[in-house]
């Protein structure tokens, strides 16, 4: 169906210290001051292995950023605004052009981070097929301008370009990262505080501290990362002292961890039920309304997530702190119809996140109680995404980080709920929704853009193509010996310069 496909969900949860008040790797205030051998190595368990040969343009982009390997021109601060990273400042020059002034930084292969290198890296991202999620629907041209400035021009005015460039998929790499064809190799060619030295397939990876990092030398000497898909195994390894940090501890394992090693934080990830609005049973808005009315969403946070979640309120949850005060009632809801004795509804989800099959089972029971006939399919995510994007399921339980791709609240609406959206699993194509999202995309003022995003959310919720179930709290296991952990609601980072044991 749509051309801008990209895996959005394999971007799990490990969240660790950042500096300079933003969720990025950099900042000199937390750096070590020893002789280069002063920090112990960190032992970290990740839930997902590299899925696309460490390409920065797909699912592995956030893996690279969480491990402190890559960074972009900008980062996200604690309020979700663009903050300096490789660019120390920026300014707008007319409607379509922005100028970014680079800081003095070095690639891990020894070369300088120059305007020419940055422009070339961004050009490679724009040429990638499929396009990185952050560039879906956006055309940009990057060129060097003098010794320190990169000029980025977009085909149409883009008021949130600095926010867009914070995306992990737009990480800046040196020229040697780009080989023939589409192959991109970040190993030794990035700019972050840690350099990948070895990747052992789907099993483990080793990283060493990059001593010439612009933000100061990291306090940990390196990272020994293991890819452990089983959540119980991750929790057990932390409990027995084999790990320092374990990401994405299942709620069923939370009680097995000592209270001092168990951290939970609200994230910008929402688990929703998506209903196929273009074909099958739920093409009928009245039956979508009936499905929405059949769901008691209070049970998901309380029972399935055992209190490590907040009841579904909208596309954006409580971690998006401005959303609740701006939320308005859904617009244009159809009257509910009684389900008939027609075809069976196919409901699907994936088991990479261990709570989702249980969520789907509860959804199935509630829909059946309302008179629907439901067949449940559960697979590993990589074996499910293509069918979901092609509209082969009537309903889909999805855990989606609404601010992961760009940090812009409007971008996720355009991607997930418009006619041309590249991640429109709900298959929604509604003129009112498209118009509301397009209006929001044009607004530069932050507060007014948020208002417009909530107006668009009201129309999307009114379509009943999406039913928010729960806003997730992520549980991270952190050993007593580890200091400086900061839990990132955007799920973009894992280790920063101040992480140590």
Description:
The structure is a single chain. The chain is an alpha+beta fold and 501 residues long. The protein is 23% helix and 21% strand. The protein contains 13 helices and 17 strands. Strands 1, 8, 9, 10, 11, 12, 13, 14, 15, 16 and 17 form an 11-stranded mixed sheet that branches. Strands 4-5-7-6 form a 4-stranded antiparallel sheet, covered by helices on one side. Strands 2-3 form a two-stranded antiparallel ribbon. Strand 6 and strand 7 form a beta hairpin. Helix 11 packs antiparallel against helix 12 and helix 11 runs parallel beside helix 13. The N terminus is likely disordered.
How do the helices and strands follow one another from N- to C-terminus? EHEEEEHEEHEEEHEHEHHEHEHEHEHHHE
Distance between the termini: 48 Å
Q: Helical amount among residues, as a percent range?
A: 10-25%
Largest sheet at a glance?
11 strands, mixed
Strand coverage percent = 15-25%
Mean pLDDT: 88
Question: How many individual β-strands?
Answer: 17
Q: By helix and strand content, what is the structural category?
A: alpha+beta
Low-pLDDT residue spans: 1-21, 24-37
Oligomer: single chain
Shape: globular
Provide the fold topology.
Layout: E1 41-46, H1 60-66, E2 74-76, E3 82-84, E4 87-92, E5 97-102, H2 115-127, E6 140-145, E7 149-154, H3 161-164, E8 194-200, E9 204-209, E10 222-227, H4 231-239, E11 245-246, H5 251-254, E12 262-275, H6 285-294, H7 298-304, E13 309-311, H8 323-326, E14 345-350, H9 356-369, E15 374-379, H10 385-389, E16 395-401, H11 409-417, H12 431-441, H13 446-463, E17 466-478
Parallel strand pairs: 1-10, 1-11, 14-15, 14-16
Antiparallel strand pairs: 2-3, 4-5, 5-7, 6-7, 8-9, 9-10, 11-17, 12-16, 12-17, 13-17
Helix pairs in contact: 11-12, 11-13, 12-13
